[in-house]
Amino acid sequence: KYNADITVIPNAWNDHVHIMADLSARRKRKFPKMVYRGAKAHQRDVFEVYKTVNNHLRKFDWYLYGDIPISLDVHFNHVPWQPLHPYFNDLAAQAPDFLFVPLANTPFNRAKSNIAWIEATVLAGAVVIAPDYLPEFDRPGILRYGIGEKNNLHKVFARALEMTHEQKMSMVELSQRFILDNLRMSQWNEE
User: Which terminus of the chain, N or C, has less C-beta within 10 A?
Assistant: First the structure.
């Protein structure tokens, strides 16, 4: 009745469709470009880090993709929700330095995958800033921050601001190498 030969694969980069971000043209910016992408369902996630984010809004060039779950105190660049492939193309064109993944420690979020890291690394060549409680984000080239009582997001943002262009590119290269070696869709299709 059912096929016994079933394999569950991890999220992977569809290397048949998307090319890996080219880091060679990257240049240092006056204000590092930070991307957040999400929906209104992330209101609690963003609210948990609101104070820290608000204190750092003027230090980064922020691009918020999708829905804005809460009000922020300063101007930011808003990119309205769009279909998947135009979003991918726009993210690649923006070539941000960082992609921020705020996720409160909830049962739903504990089931999250690392797809934001794959998107950021492959399409945008960006360093990901993600919470440290999720094993899915225990990958090379990710800046991890604690939440709740271990909240050190302020220090992680400060570290991001202090990073040289070369340090950022080195982190992205580590992520890209891991994805090339372990998470290519063509690799899974061959097996």
Answer: N
